[in-house]
């Protein structure tokens, strides 16, 4: 397990870097799926408008 210690004044935070990496990958996958859907919507709207 990799971790990073952040010290801000009197507060100390421990960041689990492995967890952050998994979370960012999961978010990237979800954005990729949403991106595919959002690209189709404008094309469908243009077809309905007769463009």
Oligomeric state, counting identical vs distinct chains: single chain
How far the N terminus sits from the C terminus, by CA atoms, comes to 55 Å
Number of helices: 1
Structural class: alpha+beta
Q: Quote the beta fraction.
A: 15-25%
Shape: elongated
Q: Assign a percent range to the helix content.
A: 55-70%
Strands ordered across the widest β-sheet: 1-2
pLDDT averaged over residues? 78
Detail the poorly predicted runs: none
Number of strands: 2
Order of helices and strands: EEH
Tell me the domain tally: 1
Task: Reconstruct the topology from this structure.
Blueprint: E1 3-8, E2 11-16, H1 17-49
Antiparallel strand pairs: 1-2
Describe what this molecule looks like in 3D.
The mean pLDDT is 78. A hairpin with a 2-residue loop joins strand 1 and strand 2. The chain is elongated. 65% of the residues lie in helices and 24% in strands. It has a two-stranded antiparallel ribbon. The protein starts with a strand and ends with a helix. The protein is built from one helix and two strands. With 51 residues, the chain is an alpha+beta fold. The protein has one domain (3-49).
Compact overview of the structure:
With 51 residues, the protein is of the alpha+beta class. Helices cover 65% and strands 24% of the residues.
């Amino acid at each position: 397990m990799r971790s990073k210690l952040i010290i801000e004044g009197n507060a100390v935070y421990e960041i689990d870097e492995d967890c952050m990496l998994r979370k960012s990958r999961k978010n990237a996958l979800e954005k990729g799926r949403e991106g595919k859907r959002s690209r189709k919507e404008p094309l469908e709207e243009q077809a309905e408008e007769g463009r």
